[in-house]
Amino acid sequence: MRGGGAADGGPRSGPPCGLLEADVSGPDRIPPGAVPALELRGLGKRFHLRSGGILRRRVTELRAVADVDLVLPRGGILGLVGESGSGKSTTGLMALRLLEPSEGQILIEGTDVTALGHAALKPWRRRVQVVFQDSYSALDPMFTLAQVVAEPLRIHGIGDGASRHRAALDWLERVGLHRSYGSRYAHELSGGQRQRVAIARALILEPAVLIADEPTSALDVSVKAQIINLLQDLQAEMDLSILFISHDLSVVRSLCDRVAVMFSGRIVEEAPTEAIFTSARHPYTRALLDAIPVLDPRQRRRRTFRDRAEIARDVPVLRRGEVTGPVPEGAGPRLMPIGPDHRVAAVLEGEAA
C-alpha cells in the first residue's frame, strides 16, 4: 500500500464534485508520512454491571479492553481479528470516540483527541469515518439514498443543497451504483448494495482513516469479494488508511498489510500478514488459524481445537535471545518484539506467567 497523505483541508484524489477543497476548514496540514494516521496508546475500557435488588445491589467491573497499543500508518490497512467478544468492536468504537475509553489515548494524525470536547472534536470526526456491519440499521429508512450519502456534508456545513445532491450521486456512481439509485430507499436494496451506500457515505468527506467493522460478514461470498475489491480500489485512489475489524481470516489475508490479534480484550500478537499466517507464535493465533475451513480431509483430521481456558493458561515463554528489542517493563505476559515488526504476548524464561 502506498504511504503519504494529503492536506487535512482538501481531498486526496478529489471528490467528483470538488466540494471539500473549497468549503472545508479543519486541522492543519501534516507532512506526508510524518505521523501515523491513527494511534491507540494503552487504550482500555471498563464497564460497571449492576445486579441484585435495591437493598442488595452489587456493582461488578467488567474489563472489556485493556492496554491496547496499535499504530495504523498512513496508506496502510491493519486487520484487527479475534473471536466474538474479544473486544474488537469496542476498540473500534473507542477509536471513533463513539464509546469513551476508561484509560489510554487516541491520536489522529499525531493529535491527542481523547479528551476533546464536542466542538473541538468535530473537525477530527471528519478525518475518521466508519462502515458498520449491519448496513440496514446504519442507513436511515426515511431518507433517499442521495440524502443518506449527502448527510455528512450537511452536518459539516459543506456546500449547498444542490451541490451536496450532485456529490452524493457522484459517489453512488463511484461505488458502483447507477445515479438513479439516488431516489431509492435502503429497503429496496440488497445487502451488498446497501454496504456500497454505507461506504459512499463514509468516504464522501474524504477522511484520512476508515474503520470498517465487519463490513462483509453478512454478505454472500461473491458479494463479499466485490466489496473487498471496492475497498482496495478506493484505498489506492485515496491513499486511505483502514482499520479492518473482522473474524474472517481469509478476507484479512487478502486485504491487510498487518494483523493484530485480540484475545480477551488484549492484543496477543501483531505482525505483517504473512508472518501471522506462516509463523504465528501465540497459541490463540494458532487456534484461529486452525479454525479456518480447509478442503483436504487429511488436514482436517490433523487439526486440534482447544478451549479458551486452556489457551489462556498456555502463555508463550521466550528466552532473552529471542527478544529482538527492549523488554517491556512489568510482570506477566506483555507484548515483546521477536522479529521484524513482530510482537507476541509472552513472559521471559524464569518469570511466572
From TrEMBL:
<dbReference type="InterPro" id="IPR017871">
    <property type="entry name" value="ABC_transporter-like_CS"/>
</dbReference>
<dbReference type="InterPro" id="IPR003593">
    <property type="entry name" value="AAA+_ATPase"/>
</dbReference>
<keyword id="KW-0813">Transport</keyword>
<dbReference type="Pfam" id="PF00005">
    <property type="entry name" value="ABC_tran"/>
</dbReference>
<dbReference type="InterPro" id="IPR003439">
    <property type="entry name" value="ABC_transporter-like_ATP-bd"/>
</dbReference>
<dbReference type="GO" id="GO:0015833">
    <property type="term" value="P:peptide transport"/>
</dbReference>
<keyword id="KW-0547">Nucleotide-binding</keyword>
<comment type="similarity">
    <text>Belongs to the ABC transporter superfamily.</text>
</comment>
<dbReference type="GO" id="GO:0055085">
    <property type="term" value="P:transmembrane transport"/>
</dbReference>
<feature type="region of interest" description="Disordered">
    <location>
        <begin position="1"/>
        <end position="26"/>
    </location>
</feature>
<protein>
    <submittedName>
        <fullName>ABC transporter ATP-binding protein</fullName>
    </submittedName>
</protein>
<dbReference type="InterPro" id="IPR013563">
    <property type="entry name" value="Oligopep_ABC_C"/>
</dbReference>
<dbReference type="GO" id="GO:0005886">
    <property type="term" value="C:plasma membrane"/>
</dbReference>
<dbReference type="Pfam" id="PF08352">
    <property type="entry name" value="oligo_HPY"/>
</dbReference>
<dbReference type="GO" id="GO:0016887">
    <property type="term" value="F:ATP hydrolysis activity"/>
</dbReference>
<feature type="domain" description="ABC transporter">
    <location>
        <begin position="49"/>
        <end position="289"/>
    </location>
</feature>
<dbReference type="GO" id="GO:0005524">
    <property type="term" value="F:ATP binding"/>
</dbReference>
<feature type="compositionally biased region" description="Gly residues">
    <location>
        <begin position="1"/>
        <end position="12"/>
    </location>
</feature>
<dbReference type="InterPro" id="IPR050319">
    <property type="entry name" value="ABC_transp_ATP-bind"/>
</dbReference>
<dbReference type="InterPro" id="IPR027417">
    <property type="entry name" value="P-loop_NTPase"/>
</dbReference>
<keyword id="KW-0067">ATP-binding</keyword>
